[in-house]
């Protein structure tokens, strides 16, 4: 099963191939996507993306995880999260969200088992 492409991105809105929903923040993985609700793990811009935020995507068996830090890169990604992913053998890419979506879609096109967590505002 392949990862769905990010079909469109604009400030505060993302659409994922195969889903009728419009997301503000989202998680994607081979075969699916869902809204990323920061309240589930208490995530805030700082300290940022925690291992608990990416664990669900990791469990889907991804080889690469792309993290979109927001349009102005306000969302932090602490070293502990990158280390958690690397210990799982996952290639991690942390980028500004527009660049992250381009990278993610390129990996999808290459057939990589890629997942992502994306923040579409600040």
From TrEMBL:
<dbReference type="InterPro" id="IPR007523">
    <property type="entry name" value="NDUFAF3/AAMDC"/>
</dbReference>
<dbReference type="Pfam" id="PF04430">
    <property type="entry name" value="DUF498"/>
</dbReference>
<protein>
    <submittedName>
        <fullName>Mth938 domain-containing protein</fullName>
    </submittedName>
</protein>
<dbReference type="InterPro" id="IPR034096">
    <property type="entry name" value="AAMDC"/>
</dbReference>
<dbReference type="InterPro" id="IPR036748">
    <property type="entry name" value="MTH938-like_sf"/>
</dbReference>
